[in-house]
Amino acid sequence: WAATLGVHATDNLDLGDFWYHWGPIWLGSAITSTTSIAPIAALLIIVPAIIDLAMVLAAGSIVQRLTRWPAAVCLIVGLASLVAVQLTKAIAVLSLGEVLHFETIQHFRTTLAEAFAYKFEAMLMLGAMAAWLWQRKALAVLLLFLTGVSAPHNVGILGVTAGVLGTLGLVLRQRPLWQ
Known about the structure:
mainly alpha; 0% strand
């Protein structure tokens, strides 16, 4: 985190940087090095806005490719799908209150490293899926490569998912699943 946060990262001397999940840091560093925006502002304000916008656009693009609906409707559905993921998480966390005898609000917030890193990789994976669906295979491979550089285990998850879909396609004799 020191790459973009600079002196702000020296307050926490007990933690070292991870070797992966650096995508948001690279983005924040690019913003900081090309503008006069302070590193902490780039990371906390600009990077999340870019990631959120890219995720909505990618999700909307996937919806449009699968449904052929108008672009505005697809963007709304893409946005709603991303909100639904957060809503599902919120409902799960709120239900913990019935089991735990203390406040559950601390389970809503995750660390910056976790929240930004996984959102960044989700953005790359959504982008890769959209590119693949739109027959932009080189872009899809590039985005998957970047996802692998940022966090190798995400590519493993995609591999397992592709394997399951491929096997189901062969068993059910449905070519689109294994193609």
